[in-house]
Design a protein that fits this description.
Strand order of the largest sheet of chain B: 1-6-7-5-2-3-4
Strand content of chain A: 35-45%
Structural class of chain B: alpha+beta
Helix content of chain A: 25-40%
Number of helices of chain B: 2
Number of strands of chain B: 7
Largest sheet of chain A: 9 strands, mixed
Helix content of chain B: 25-40%
Strand content of chain B: 15-25%
Shape of chain B: rod-shaped
Order of helices and strands of chain B: HEEEEEEEH
Radius of gyration of chain A: 33 Å
Distance between the termini of chain A: 63 Å
Radius of gyration of chain B: 34 Å
Number of helices of chain A: 4
Oligomer: heterodimer
Chain lengths: ~230, ~190
């Protein structure tokens, strides 16, 4: 082999290396560009939608980041579109604690856990407190006891008094304050405002020795922390 | 090329190279190498500047346009207060890239309801429209040119919320007008 052919081999190797490096560089640049494609409009819509879902002044929240379960479950796409114009006409999926609240269209591939944003959709995740109203009832037999402690009431207390003629209920106290009083005797159903203290002791003041029952009905709040996931597609 | 059969009968084949031609072969070889090298470089250059680089530039331009529009929408939304505000006089500066894909552009409110802004650019691939999450009572007007400083001017009086996109050049008249307004804005 002579010197000229050695030169040719070296030249060929150089050409191959240069072409390889160039193609690899272009491929890397293409990957970087694909990764940088973020759909900012979808991200904007997802951000606004999640902000509305936990806003203090929305109809389905009690305060910021506290959602009422029943009203949240009744949310419709029309409600959200009206409140959050950027989400109009986009694929939307809102789920609370793993259960879908509203859904429209197919929201891209951003379903994998830990994937914040994929190429064609944006995902926002928030931890929220979800409150459910649970109705509770307690029955007090006046022959045996004259009061009860409510551990977890919110709002009003409904008192239903049912006695025989030999017993008269004249006063109902909540946390020591008189909330109902009639010296001639209370009977029937009363909805009363009670102090917002927990636990709340309710005492029934009654005379006589006949049988009688007082039924207390109140609303308890059952709260849990859930994951609110908002996904918006292009 | 350099290995040639030994010359036996030079008189029978007149054009056959004489021994003193052999000095030419390295020159021809080098010239060929040089030509191939130049060809390769020319090919690479043509590929990059003819198709790869412009494609990337267009893709990045579209992406920057999308982001600029989203960022502008963010700034406008942040400048607009809630619908329960009685009086507002607020100016917020917005920084926009001077050019996208080498050209200046405009961002304009398109007066529709719900309020939205649109990016207008000479290149078709760059641009778009984004809806704003502002109270329904807000009227968004005006436009920005990317080459001049841009601001959002929010004024609210008696329930009417006005949002204007204002360029730097019209700033003095805007300030004077606002100063005389009942909001008593002190810039």
């Amino acid at each position: 082999m002579t010197r000229a052919q050695a030169n040719l081999l070296g030249f060929a190797a150089a050409v191959v290396i240069v072409v390889t490096v160039t193609v690899a560089g272009a491929a890397l640049a293409g990957d970087a560009l694909a990764d940088a494609d973020r759909q900012p409009a979808a991200a904007h819509a997802a951000d606004r939608l999640s902000a509305h879902l936990v806003a203090a002044d929305a109809t389905h929240t009690r305060e910021a980041n506290v959602l009422r379960a029943d009203r949240t479950a009744n949310l419709t796409l029309d409600d959200l579109d009206g409140e959050v114009p950027p989400a109009r006409g986009r694929a939307v999926a809102v789920s609370l604690g793993g259960e879908t609240v509203v859904e429209r269209g197919a929201v891209g591939a951003a379903t994998g856990e830990g994937v914040a944003r994929s190429a064609d959709s944006a995902r926002v995740e928030r931890r929220v407190r979800v409150e459910r109203a649970v109705g509770r009832t307690a029955r007090i037999d006046l022959a045996e006891r004259s009061g009860r402690t409510l551990p977890d009431h919110t709002g009003r207390l409904v008192v239903r008094i049912d006695t025989r003629r030999t017993r008269t209920v004249h006063t109902v106290r909540a946390d020591g304050r008189v909330v109902l009083h009639d010296a001639a005797g209370l009977s029937g159903r009363y909805a009363v405002r009670v102090p917002d203290v927990h636990p709340l002791s309710v005492d029934i003041g009654s005379d006589g020795d006949g049988p009688g029952t007082v039924t207390l009905s109140w609303t308890a709040t059952n709260a849990s922390v859930e994951r609110l996931v908002v996904k918006v597609g292009g | 090329m350099s290995r040639r059969p030994p010359v036996r009968d030079s008189s029978a084949r007149a054009p056959s190279p004489r021994p003193d031609d052999r000095g030419l072969s390295p020159v021809v070889g080098k010239t060929l190498e040089l030509g191939l090298g130049v060809l390769l470089v020319a090919l690479l250059t043509a590929t990059f500047f003819g198709s790869v680089a412009p494609d990337y530039r267009a893709a990045v331009g579209a992406e920057v346009g999308d982001r600029t529009l989203a960022a502008a929408a963010d700034r406008i939304e942040a400048a607009v207060p809630g619908s329960d505000v009685v009086r507002v006089d607020r100016r917020v500066t917005v920084r926009l890239p001077d050019t996208i894909h080498g050209s200046p552009y405009r961002i304009a409110a398109d007066g529709a309801s719900p309020a939205s802004v649109r990016l207008a650019h000479p290149k078709e691939a760059v641009g778009g429209r984004i809806r704003l999450a502002v109270p329904g009572s807000a009227a968004v007007r005006g436009s920005w040119r990317s080459t001049s400083p841009s601001r959002v001017v929010v004024t609210a009086t008696r329930g009417s919320l006005s949002v204007r996109l204002v360029d730097g050049e019209s700033a003095p008249t805007d300030d004077q007008r606002t100063a005389r307004s009942p909001t008593g804005g002190s810039a």
